[in-house]
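Appendix B.2, paired examples.
Example (i):
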Amino acid sequence: MNGLTQALLFPDWPAPASVRACVTTRQGGVSLPPYEAFNLGDHVGDDPTAVAENRRRLSAEFAIQPAWLKQVHGLVVADADPAVVAEADASWTDQPGIACTVMTADCLPALFCDRAGTRVAAAHAGWRGLAGGVLEATLDRLALPPEEVLVWLGPAIGPQAFEVGTEVRDAFTAVHPEAATAFVDGARPGKLMADIYQLARIRLAARGVTAVYGGGLCTVSDPRFFSYRRTPQGGRFASLVWLQP
């Protein structure tokens, strides 16, 4: 153990004992400014050696193998495989010791498990992926009855900071008219403030998934987390879920 645990956030959800999950913060790593310190993104300009050391520390802390992804704001859900960096925005597994892992810095990370503790998944949902159906695609890959699914929504840009155009609202309301309730007028003409947590809950509820936890942590206002909107040149934190070996 290297003491990294003290810097991590652990989901507050009624997951079974066989399921473990965590969210990293900016603390506990070796990256130098502006990536200080625990940057896990290998695509943001940070020293690759520092990123590799940060990733090594994360793996060693829990004796797990994170399955990293090349995230593209799409709908592909990969089989979590530590040996392959899949181009996907979600992954799932039923194999112990392999951690479904997504990186974010304002987008919404969503962690999934079943009540029996036999399958887990993680999804990266920016507004495009969320509107396109990445959460639903993840549910499809898990292939579980909706009442058996638990979801935890990790730190993302909060409703006081998420300014969008009307096209974002239209993308959601075209599928779920009730999504209009997740938008309020912004301070600037033609702009709206969006609640990405509420939008995710609406999408999940439409599929019968109502055991949804988390939400309420804003990456823009909470300095524990990297935020692209707050600091465009910065790192990425990770949200992970796995089955105990």
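Example (ii):
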Amino acid sequence: MSAHGWIVPDWPAPPTVRALITTRAGGASRSAYAGLNLGLHCGDDIGAVVRNRASLRQWLPAEPLWLRQVHGTTVVEADAAEGNPEADAALARRPGRVCAALTADCLPLLLCDEAGTTVAAVHAGWRGLSSGVIEQTLRAMNRPARALLAYLGPAIGPGAYEVGAEVRAAFIAADPGGESGSAFAPGAPGKYYADLYALARLRLARSGVARIYGGGYCTYTERARFYSYRRDGATGRMASLIWMEN
């Protein structure tokens, strides 16, 4: 935990790789967005979000590449990207380029290789996970899976994320081995509790990534610390950021 109340990932990333995950701590936003809301398109006062982003920028080597996230599988190369591209993952191979994923229940995933030559940030809700956003990002990184490290940032926990049967069916349809079924527990009739952390770990492991860290948070239940769309509807967004230094 940083002095700002942000999360500094506890993982054995190489010393040139830096990462942090913001929380609600600090910030100029008020009312339902109270805290350090970094999402421009969730109904908050734009001026407050601009001030929040400027406050965060002081601790970064550059302005993050803010994506227009659509719950898809598109991955962009941050080194060459301009503006705010429509994508749900970004990777960088040059020092100083900051990749970012905005979340408020969806799973943010940070990735790097052990040599510190490539980093990535992924926005992974259930649609992106079931459609293969993790696999697409790993392919784009183009590094041996055994050389990669993954960190799972704060997401809605398995005891709070009730979904319809169609969500479970989507994962099982994409999983001939049937392992994904273990990430769902029965809920109300026709409903299941989904474990985003377990689903991400399964996808990573299946792709050959063995070093997986983080997880265990719950954005829904930790009201004072995290934004949660499922809990509040009108709410802000946290950022999970990763970059390389020289």
